[in-house]
């Protein structure tokens, strides 16, 4: 830290006005640099604690819901999608087909498939916002989806 202060002092030597002794001025620079570092570390620590509390609140909610309930909400959200969005989403994200394969199956362009999938994701995010982290985890691993395309 002291080296940083000396480097800063040297770089700004022509524009600095030292009204006291040089040693007092340098001491003050180090003092303020240390205070700023502590303030930054304290802010980071508070942000980390807040994040941990939020995540604990998410996973250890006072009113837990079952995986079965979550599965039902995901299925309902998928069923509420427009048919074209649901087809593209299911083929691309759930069945894991390439975008070109989905486009060929649906008889549309790659760009339209991409658009439909993105729109489906936005609608699902909105529908499942209260369950989003867990729903995304469940959707990314496997979905026992009863609809046939």
UniProtKB/TrEMBL annotation:
Nucleotide-binding as UniProt keyword: no
Keyword Lipid metabolism listed: no
Limits of the RNA polymerase sigma factor 70 region 4 type domain: 72-124
A UniProt-annotated Pfam family: Sigma70_r4_2
Keyword tags: Sigma factor, Transcription, Transcription regulation
SUPFAM superfamilies: Sigma2 domain of RNA polymerase sigma factors, Sigma3 and sigma4 domains of RNA polymerase sigma factors
One biological process term in Gene Ontology: DNA-templated transcription initiation
GO MF term list: DNA binding; sigma factor activity
Family listed: Belongs to the sigma-70 factor family. ECF subfamily.
Protein name per the record: RNA polymerase sigma factor, sigma-70 family
């Amino acid at each position: 830290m002291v080296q940083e202060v000396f480097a800063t002092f040297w770089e700004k030597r022509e524009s600095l006005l030292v009204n006291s002794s040089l040693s007092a001025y340098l001491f003050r620079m180090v003092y303020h640099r240390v205070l700023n570092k502590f303030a930054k570390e304290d802010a980071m620590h508070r942000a980390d604690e807040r994040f941990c509390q939020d995540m604990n609140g998410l996973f250890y909610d006072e009113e837990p819901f079952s995986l079965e309930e979550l599965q039902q909400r995901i299925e309902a959200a998928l069923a509420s999608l427009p048919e074209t969005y649901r087809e593209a989403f299911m083929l691309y994200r759930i069945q894991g087909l390439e975008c070109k394969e989905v486009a060929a199956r649906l008889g549309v362009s790659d760009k339209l498939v991409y658009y439909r999938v993105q729109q489906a994701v936005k609608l699902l995010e909105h529908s499942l916002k209260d369950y989003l982290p867990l729903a995304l985890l469940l959707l990314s691993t496997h979905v026992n989806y009863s609809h046939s395309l």
